[in-house]
């Protein structure tokens, strides 16, 4: 018999729980951005159709609505795992912050999640049963629910980045909520939300581009797919511009709340001002992570990004480390520098590349041009994941850059893990989740591919069925 | 009433809502191999819950999040303690949800058969394990002074826990069958009715023994009243099923589940997770709850939102009130 708290075969519940949380979260968040972005774009498509009665917009609504739903199901089932994991793997964290952190999570459930799940059902089965206007309303309410959901989750995450609105109850050894308004208007949440939304729109736009390119390359459904392509290109470009602008705000908030993370993003070891506060395109540090050997730099740029002035001062890793030792006691307060440094650059680079695809696409296909060489279509198909990879890497930066803290300045990740679980427990769950998620990915891809292959015209026939048939969707 | 008692009731309400709603989903899933003679039959069955199963499943997510916010210590001890049991439930719920969505999206018989079995197992396993989990919550589990669970998966599989599991398994199966009689037409409806008669006998014996065991272990007036109502409603539901009063039978099954789960929560109160190691280590509504401020904020949110949630979910059920039968299943398509 195995007993709690044991390390079996040298398996460490902490390390495994971190890997499991990382894997399941990244996986969950492959689907979430597409849901967040696509729900808005489908709502816009349906609005255009309702207003103009132009059938190609109905076709687009149905096709991308279907992709949205396939994807939503994945987000739903993988989302339950996320909620359960806080208690299962991070029970000491949950005990310590539950009084504060649980509130936005429960609000997400009560305010937003019930909403989106209900109205999505009404939207799916409401074709032909609800009046056109009420049916349109259901997709917009779904959009509102999805976005509210995102806001509450980001507010919960923001507490981990920059804890506000709480007091420490030393008798109970936990953080207690004192100001819910402060938690919900956390400067990190306020800046993270538009960044997340706009990046998601950029990615959803990229998916629309890819689907349209897939059909245009095969010279089928030309009329609706050209319209879809242009719509996707604009969505991707505008989403990208929004991501850049909101990223700027988020960067400023980060400098203000987590200077160590910004310093790690730049691998800035020494505190620098003005010309010296440069943005490096490449940097190589010594293995002990305390000094730099070689780098390629753009002067003033880091100062500008961090403070919006050319002669600002940006604190370096070594100074911050010394400050934190003074504040929080001995220990290493730097995240893994190469990881934060490169993830920050890849996030920006891949996002920019996605925008470049949109700009080039808009130019090449202006005024109805669709006679393009095959490689351009292939390139835009393969460019679809750029947005979501940038998003994933951005989250890795955000979460890894917070280390060693689970809640910045309050609790370290090593103190958050469940004391009662064994390494074997977590090994079992990590293997099970990996297997299931792997199988799901294959199945999901097959189904998406099939729905895309079927094209927009097939789906349209469903909408013309009589109302009786429409209760049947399975 | 103190706010932590209010939240004990809200958490109880959310779990009761979850069991009433997802309970019949589990039952319908379990009925597939018994009632689904061919693919059209199975599609009729799945479409009885098609528009609502995911909505029903959201109740457990909301229940879990509410538990976290209002009783963080309970959430932390319970979820880390029941680690492998919850893992099994998660896997089953994922398998079921994915199977519902994907079974119709492939063409081959093998594809559908695979997903049909995922639905059956993904329905039966949580139906069993939720009962095991709740029986153990009521009975208590080994918790140390820091409220950390010191048992393992097999600690939960004790006689009382297993009887609790069989109770939910059989009652949810019956609940699902009676839901099918309400939501379908034609031959399948009668097959469901006949199977419900047989399952009903087993469910009655198992549920009655479990509830009586619970009652005698935690004697209270409220517990006794709820147990008696649950037992009477369970028997009356079957009489209504025999008499072909489908609506009444379903309503009585809902009443059975409300009162039976209510009896479990009554037996638990004021504890939330008793310790069998030492009664002093038990978690109760005082030492497990959130601060007064958090509970106040959450009470406002729940007080405003729950009526809305109930209203728009009721509307959903109204929109999808039509019965499903073979003639609704379009031939040739998925």
What does this structure look like?
- Chain A is mostly helical.
- Chain A has helices at residues 13-52, 55-89, 91-126, 132-161, 180-184, 187-217, 222-257, 259-266, 301-307, 317-328, 337-364, 374-382, 386-400, 423-464; strands at 166-169, 174-177, 272-273, 279-285, 292-298, 313-314, 405-407, 411-412.
- Chain A is built from 14 helices and 8 strands.
- Chain A starts with 12 loop residues before the first helix and ends in a 10-residue tail after the last helix.
- The relative contact order of chain A is 0.15.
- Chain B has 334 residues and is mainly α.
- Chain B has helices at 3-35, 39-49, 53-70, 72-81, 83-102, 109-139, 153-156, 159-183, 187-217, 221-242, 246-268, 292-319, and strands at 271-273, 283-284.
- The radius of gyration of chain B is 20 Å and the shape is globular.
- Chain B starts with a helix and ends in a 15-residue tail after the last helix.
- The mean pLDDT of chain B is 91.
- The chains are: A mainly alpha (474), B mainly alpha (334).
- At the A-B interface, helix 2, helix 3, strand 2 and helix 14 of A face helix 2, helix 3, helix 4, helix 5 and helix 12 of B.
Q: What's the helix and strand layout?
A:
The complex is a heterodimer of chains A (474) and B (334).
Chain A: H1 13-52, H2 55-89, H3 91-126, H4 132-161, E1 166-169, E2 174-177, H5 180-184, H6 187-217, H7 222-257, H8 259-266, E3 272-273, E4 279-285, E5 292-298, H9 301-307, E6 313-314, H10 317-328, H11 337-364, H12 374-382, H13 386-400, E7 405-407, E8 411-412, H14 423-464
Antiparallel strand pairs in A: 1-2, 3-6, 4-5, 7-8
Helix pairs in contact in A: 1-2, 1-4, 1-6, 1-13, 1-14, 2-3, 2-7, 2-14, 3-4, 4-6, 6-7, 6-11, 6-12, 6-13, 7-8, 7-11, 8-11, 11-13
Chain B: H1 3-35, H2 39-49, H3 53-70, H4 72-81, H5 83-102, H6 109-139, H7 153-156, H8 159-183, H9 187-217, H10 221-242, H11 246-268, E1 271-273, E2 283-284, H12 292-319
Antiparallel strand pairs in B: 1-2
Helix pairs in contact in B: 1-2, 1-3, 1-6, 1-8, 1-11, 1-12, 3-4, 5-6, 6-8, 6-11, 8-9, 8-11, 9-10, 9-11, 10-11
């Amino acid at each position: 018999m195995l007993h709690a708290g044991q390390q079996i075969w040298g398996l460490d519940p902490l390390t495994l729980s971190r890997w499991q949380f990382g894997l399941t979260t990244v996986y969950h968040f492959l689907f979430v951005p597409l849901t967040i972005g696509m729900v808005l774009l489908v709502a816009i498509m349906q609005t255009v159709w309702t207003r103009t009665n132009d059938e190609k917009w109905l076709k687009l609504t149905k096709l991308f609505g279907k992709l949205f739903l396939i994807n939503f199901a994945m987000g739903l089932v993988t989302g339950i795992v996320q909620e359960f994991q806080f208690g299962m793997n991070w029970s000491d964290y949950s005990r310590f912050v539950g009084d504060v952190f649980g509130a936005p999570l429960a609000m997400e459930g009560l305010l937003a999640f019930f909403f989106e799940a209900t109205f999505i059902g009404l939207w799916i089965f409401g074709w032909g049963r609800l009046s056109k206007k009420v049916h349109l309303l259901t997709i917009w309410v779904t959009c509102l629910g999805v976005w509210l959901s995102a806001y509450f989750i980001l507010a919960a995450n923001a507490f981990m980045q920059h804890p506000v609105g709480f007091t420490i109850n030393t008798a109970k050894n936990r953080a207690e909520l004192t100001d819910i308004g402060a938690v919900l208007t956390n400067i990190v949440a306020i800046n993270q939300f538009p960044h997340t939304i706009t990046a998601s729109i950029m990615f959803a736009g990229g998916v629309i581009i890819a689907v349209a390119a897939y059909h245009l390359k095969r010279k089928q459904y030309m009329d609706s797919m050209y319209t879809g392509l242009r719509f996707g290109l604009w969505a991707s470009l505008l989403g990208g511009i929004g991501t850049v602008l909101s990223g700027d705000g988020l960067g400023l908030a980060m400098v203000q709340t987590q200077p160590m993370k910004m310093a790690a993003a730049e691998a800035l070891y020494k505190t620098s001002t003005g010309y010296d506060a440069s943005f490096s395109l490449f940097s190589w540090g010594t293995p002990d992570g305390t000094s730099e050997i070689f780098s390629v730099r753009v002067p003033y740029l880091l100062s500008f990004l961090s403070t919006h002035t050319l002669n600002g001062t940006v604190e370096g890793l070594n100074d911050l480390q010394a400050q934190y030792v003074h504040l929080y006691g001995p220990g290493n307060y730097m995240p893994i520098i190469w990881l934060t440094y490169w993830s920050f650059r890849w996030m920006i680079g891949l996002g920019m590349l996605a925008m470049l695809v949109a700009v080039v696409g808009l130019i090449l296909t202006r005024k109805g041009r669709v006679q393009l060489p095959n490689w351009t279509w292939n390139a835009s198909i393969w460019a679809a994941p750029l947005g979501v990879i940038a998003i994933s890497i951005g989250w890795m930066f955000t979460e890894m850059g917070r280390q060693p803290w689970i809640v910045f300045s309050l609790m370290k990740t090593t103190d958050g893990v469940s004391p009662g679980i064994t390494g074997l427990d977590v090994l079992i769950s990590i293997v099970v989740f990996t297997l299931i998620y792997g199988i799901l990915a294959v199945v999901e891809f097959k189904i998406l591919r099939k729905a895309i292959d079927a094209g927009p015209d097939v789906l349209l026939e469903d909408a013309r069925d009589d109302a009786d048939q429409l209760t049947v969707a399975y | 009433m103190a706010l932590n008692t209010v939240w004990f009731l809200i958490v109880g309400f959310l779990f009761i809502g979850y069991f009433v709603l997802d309970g019949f989903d589990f039952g319908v899933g379990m009925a597939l191999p018994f009632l689904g003679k061919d693919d059209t039959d199975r599609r009729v069955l799945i479409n009885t819950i098609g528009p609502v199963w995911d909505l029903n499943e959201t109740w457990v997510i909301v229940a879990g999040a509410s538990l976290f916010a209002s009783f963080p210590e309970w959430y932390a001890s319970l979820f880390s303690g029941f680690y492998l049991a919850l893992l099994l439930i998660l896997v089953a719920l994922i398998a079921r949800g994915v199977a519902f969505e994907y079974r119709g999206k492939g063409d081959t018989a093998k594809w559908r058969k695979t997903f049909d079995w995922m639905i059956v197992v993904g329905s039966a396993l949580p139906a069993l394990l939720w009962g095991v989990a709740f029986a153990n919550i009521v009975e208590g589990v080994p918790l140390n002074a820091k409220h950390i669970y010191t048992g393992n998966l097999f600690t939960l599989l004790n006689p009382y826990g297993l009887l609790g599991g069989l109770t939910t398994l059989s009652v949810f199966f019956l609940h699902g069958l009676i839901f099918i009689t309400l939501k379908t037409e034609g031959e399948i409806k009668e097959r469901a009715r006949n199977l419900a008669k047989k399952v009903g006998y087993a469910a009655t014996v198992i549920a009655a023994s479990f509830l009586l065991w619970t009652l005698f272990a935690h004697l209270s007036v409220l517990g006794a009243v709820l147990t008696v109502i649950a037992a009477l409603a369970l028997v009356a539901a079957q009489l209504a099923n025999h008499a072909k009063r489908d609506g009444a039978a379903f309503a009585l099954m809902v009443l059975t589940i409300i009162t039976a789960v209510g009896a479990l929560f009554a037996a638990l109160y004021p504890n939330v997770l008793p310790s069998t190691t030492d009664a002093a280590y038990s978690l109760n509504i005082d030492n497990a709850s959130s601060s007064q401020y958090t509970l106040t904020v959450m009470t406002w949110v729940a007080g405003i939102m729950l009526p809305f949630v109930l209203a728009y979910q009721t509307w959903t059920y109204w929109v999808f009130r039509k019965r499903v039968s073979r003639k609704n299943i379009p031939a040739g398509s998925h």
